[in-house]
């Protein structure tokens, strides 16, 4: 009954959509910051003897939220009085902000009812701007507290992480396209991206690299779990010594849980060979645990192997990168030689090797990024280096997956094509035997034997109008012959004087050179012969007077007498 409100102009509508995208980015940042704040305040409230104020708890929550983005913090209150850096990012805690900004950028491009969706660039810029605006406020808030943030780390890697997650959200909302490249890119790149085969192989490289990284992380987590079970008593003692009350132990347990992905990366680096550093003077590898470690008391660090040279159990950690290389090969061959495709549809050996090599490069790059995020300083002097060295870990992952994945992909491809060829030969042989009743199961050589066609008089004898013709075309379906007749179809006899040429029916025999073929086996005879029990065999013999002259040529008269 009321008039509708005046519609906004196109410019106002576009501005409203961009403002909504900015708000979505700010809300995503607020949700991540709020979740961390709730957990920190809950632990602070549950502590029986907390000498800190609520403001200190809020400062700690904002600092942890910035640390989850990769920012480096500085602890002001230390035993030595010297501020100490904290650069190890809890990877499980970092999943929350990355997922929130990814979802915000993805949902912005979904048009609301009555409002158009913004452009991809506008959505990306507004979401990132709103998120970083809240991050700047949080960094200003923690300034001067017990945990302060170093400003250079806000640009790299914090802003880069946010921008990357938002770009992934925009790409997902756009349908995950590959291309088109920028206008300044060379023409050859435009042509390559336009080919469907290029896009298929690029997707295979991505999937194989991601699978290799996942196997490395899973293997590293398995190594850590086995080591924790092996050193269960030291881990329990370390857990009890850190805090005496239940609230403190809950805090230690939560901290250990958010650091489990970091421990998995450390385990993967250990299996790859470079290992990880426990301070500036100690390195842990499968070959040896050397130097003087600076190990703080923490349950996850109790899984570190004993000092000294490595044993066979330590060397068995090399099975982790081998499994990653096999996984890269398997994911490559799944598309290079799929089971439902023929040999002509399979990739060539060079293309398969190239895709496996590129997947190994991607696996090494992903492992290097995770190793860089999983390690960092925990203090000054001896604790300035803690965790795996990112470039050594990435290079080791590249070498392992390339040495195992490329030959493995070629071998798997050759094996699949060999099985396919064997299946094809067996199928052709079975089809050859099944399609000809004269081929015996014991032999594969078919010797053509001429089978004369009967005359017209023999094929047309019937009794009472309902009789059965004694000869049928051998190509019936139930007979399985090589002719074209249907099942049970009766063929009329040939017209006199127009007899067809003798047919050649393949008969299975393995004959030596120069040997004459034997009689036609029963399987090669006409399927209609002998199938009627009520008809005697001599009924098939012709009884015309010409038979005697044909059967006994010496008794037949002169050839001129007709």
What do you see in this structure?
- The chain has 562 residues and is α+β, with helices and mostly antiparallel strands.
- The chain contains 16 helices and 10 strands.
- The strands form 3 sheets. A 5-stranded antiparallel β-sheet has the order 7-6-5-4-8. It has a 3-stranded antiparallel β-sheet with strand order 2-1-3, with helices on one face.
- Helix 1 packs across helix 2 (54-68), helix 2 (54-68) runs antiparallel to helix 4 (120-142) and helix 10 crosses helix 13 (349-374).
- 31% of the residues are buried.
**What gross morphology would you assign?**
flat
What is the gyration radius calculated from CA atoms?
Answer: 41 Å
Number of strands: 10
Strand arrangement, largest sheet?
Answer: 7-6-5-4-8
N-to-C span: 115 Å
Structural class: alpha+beta
Beta-strand residue fraction: 5-15%
Mind describing the biggest β-sheet?
5 strands, antiparallel
Spans with pLDDT under 50 lasting ≥5 residues?
Answer: 1-8, 429-517, 520-541, 545-551, 555-562
Compute the number of helices.
16
| Overall pLDDT confidence | 77
The succession of helices and strands, N to C, reads: HHEEHHEHHHHHHEEEEHHHEHEHEH
